[in-house]
Here is the input.
Amino acid sequence: MTTAQATSNAPDDRGMARLGQIIAVASGKGGVGKSTVSTNLALALAAMGARVGLVDADLYGPSVPGMLGIETGKPPSMSPLRKVIPAQAHGIKVISMGMLTGDDKPAVLRGPMVAKYLQMFMLEVEWGTLDFLVLDLPPDTGDTQLTLAQSFPLTGAVVVTTPQDVSLKIARRGIRMRLRACNGSMFREP
Here is the structure.
């Protein structure tokens, strides 16, 4: 998908403005603490008085509900406008596949369905007006990350890694891939 195609499929700026500054937290591989960084970043922003949302976009291994003490396996409520009402914990609004499936039930999804769930998590949730929306991306450097980076205007990104050479190499490769896929324009001006 080219940047021009992604832009034509992206939601319009009016709908995105209510989401505030969108910050992606990514890693090239699992087990490096990405979800912990995402959760702590959201909590720190909320502690400073910001209105914060957190999207646990790791559909296959959601861990944010457990970190925040959010009940899993209980479908969230719907607003009168048929939007999902996010959970709230510690001053932040949260949406996660873990809230829909529970801790021990895997989400069996293929690429197109993953993209649909991520679009839903971003646009079909009653976020209200946010100052920041933190995206806890799944580990890897694949389609999910590209879909988000090309569909939503990111303000910035945090790449989490560990000091081992293998982890650093994968993180650098992921950064280069994302920049190349977005023609160097994956970030919006704040």
Notes: Residues 33-181 form a domain with the Rossmann fold fold (CATH 3.40.50.300). The radius of gyration is 16 Å. The helical segments are 3-9, 13-17, 34-47, 64-68, 97-101, 111-123, 143-151, 165-181.
